[in-house]
Amino acid sequence: MSDRLTRDQAWAQLCAWTESDALRRHARAVEVAMRAAARRYGGADADEEEWGIAGLLHDADYEKWPEEHPKRIVAWLRERGEEAIAHAVSAHYTKWGVSYDSPLDKALLACDELTGLIMAACYVRPEGVATLKAKSVLKKFKDKSFAAGVDRDECRAGVELLGVELREHVEFLIEALRPHAAELGIEGSGAAV
Q1: Quick check: is 78 in a domain?
Q2: Is residue 188 part of a domain?
Q3: pLDDT tens per residue across span 49-85
Q4: Tell me, what CATH number does 132's domain have?
């Protein structure tokens, strides 16, 4: 159907509601992770564009309306007939108790917080994501004071829903993010300029 939400429209909406570069980078990183997740976890009929847009928009209303998150972006998606994405975004907000009905729903939960933790780990490394290993991320995962805003329980719940080990999923996300290091600002402080 030709009136589906496009990636350009999704990006425009994100930018309209999100001014912070850090939050835009997070949204882009989760988009990258979700596109890779569509190929890995989605099965033959997974719609990579749909998965990517879910990652891109999952926190689109957070900066402007944190107390209403994700109500506004879910409503915006439903107005456009994007029910699968709206459901996944609703489910990623675990306080709502929305069921995880599809691989898309499960993957968004598994990719969101963990991507944030991986990016935080990259920021404190001179080589950024270039030489990052799962072992290093898992060490940071255990340190509750590191990236304290990352909900470790949501990370665990997401990988359990996907039926994978935490280490395996961390490795997968690192590999997905690595080619986008410069764009995401995770190339490290020691990277060539």
Answers
A1: yes
A2: no
A3: 999 999 999 999 999 999 999 999 999 999 999 999 9
A4: 1.10.3210
**pLDDT band at residue 10 using 50, 70 and 90 as cut-offs:** very high
In this prediction, residue 1 has a pLDDT band, given cuts at 50, 70 and 90, of very low
Position of tokens 């963990």? 114
Q: What is the mean pLDDT of residues 35-58?
A: 96
**Are the C-beta atoms of 177 and 186 separated by less than 8 Å?**
yes
Give a three-class secondary structure readout of 94-141.
HHHCCCCCCHHHHHHHHHHHHHHHHHHHHHCCCCCCCCCCHHHHHHHH
Distance between CA 28 and CA 23 in Å, rounded?
9
Under 8 Å between Cβ of 102 and 54: no
d(CA 58, CA 95): 14
Within 10 angstroms of residue 11's Cβ, the number of other Cβ atoms is 18
Concatenated DSSP letters of 29-44: HHHHHHHHHHHHHS-T
Residue ranges making up the domain that contains 70: 7-182
Cis peptide before 70 (omega within 30 of 0): yes
Residue indicated by tokens 């029910």 = 83
Asked if the structure places residue 63 within a domain, the reply is yes
Q: Give the whole-angstrom CA distance, residue 49 versus residue 139.
A: 33
Place of tokens 């009905």: 101
Note whether residue 1 is domain-resident.
no
